Amino acid sequence: MFEDYLGPWGLTLDGEPIETPYSYLQPVKYGNIAAILKRVNEDEKHSGAVLHWWNEVGAVKVLRYESNVVLIERAMGQRSLISMAPSGHDEDACRILCDVAAKLHAQRAPVPDGLPNIADRFDDLSIASSQHGGVFTKCHKTVVELLAAPQEVTVLHGDLHHGNVLDFGTKCWLAIDPKGLKGERTFDFANIFNNPDCIGPEKPTALQNFEKRVQIVAEAACLEKRRLLQWVMAFAGLSASWHVKNDNPLAAIPLENAERALGMLNQ
Question: Which residues are registered as beta bridge partners of 28?
């Protein structure tokens, strides 16, 4: 799959290829630099351009890219936000994610061309609302309200979560695998709440953990709490609609988060 790039880009193989549900990865060496050669799918077709535009400010360094293939530095640090959260350091992990997001959201010019708007992402939620009603309809109504009056529009990562911010050693924490979207910056924080593997054991219930995260993220990212909860609810409904579309039982997890967000909004 990557043979056409090894010679022309001066790469040597440095590990076994990795296949994920969404991409193909090949560990390589670029000179003496440990790197990852990645073939992105349609959903991440703007990844290389956006990473290059961020120019290592909160994001991984791009070594080369073209169309749907991108060569990035490989994260060699030993720390992990995924393991940090359930080991009693959930607040630290959340604050790191917020710090990285702040760097990504800083305005620069000119903005890359052709980035899709987040409004284009919510078609599946609209369909789920029509087909299933209930909480899907409540989430869709919230999305319509949010998109009608966007605030602080900027370039977004689009998939910011514990697994997409990695330890790059002396370069600290950097984001990988962006979707590359335009929209309200609060959208980028909603996915922090959707990862069930990042629930800390120090809090007795999932609801208390959720409420604590809302407080931490709102404070660390300087967000209005109600607006954050609305985007959490919107994104949870969207995530659930993707699972339902694919007959995936994991839809229950984001739906629970949508209900938690709605409960806090109604307090």
Answer: 13, 35
CB hemisphere CA count around 126 (13 angstroms): 7
Q: 18 Cβ partners below 8 Å, 6+ apart? A: 24, 25, 26, 27
Number of helices (H) and strands (E), helices first, in the chain? 9, 10
The single residue of 90, 124, 159, 188 carrying the catalytic annotation is 159
Per DSSP, 169 falls in state G
Q: Token pair for residue 18?
A: 């990795």
In the residue annotation, 120 being an active-site residue is answered as: no
As a whole number of angstroms, the distance between CA 156 and CA 237 comes to 19
Which residues on adjacent β-strands are paired with residue 13? 28
**What pLDDT is attached to residue 206?**
73
* Arithmetic mean of pLDDT, 78-93: 88
Query: CA 127 to CA 251: how far, in whole Å?
Result: 15
- Measure CA 160 to chain center: 2
Enter the tokens of residue 85.
């959260």
pLDDT band at 203 (very low <50, low <70, confident <90, very high): very low
Model confidence at 248, in pLDDT bands (50, 70, 90)? confident
Who contacts 190 (Cβ-Cβ below 8 Å, separation ≥6)? Answer: 228, 231, 232, 234, 235, 236
pLDDT for position 204: 47
Q: Please, which residues have CB within 8 angstroms of residue 172's CB and are 6 or more apart in sequence?
A: none
pTM, 2 dp: 0.93
Q: Does residue 110 have a cis bond before it (omega within 30 degrees)? A: yes
The token pair at 168 is: 């790059």
Residue 185 is classified by DSSP as G
pLDDT of residue 208: 81
User: Nearest-CA neighbor of 230 among 156, 140, 125, 127?
Assistant: 140
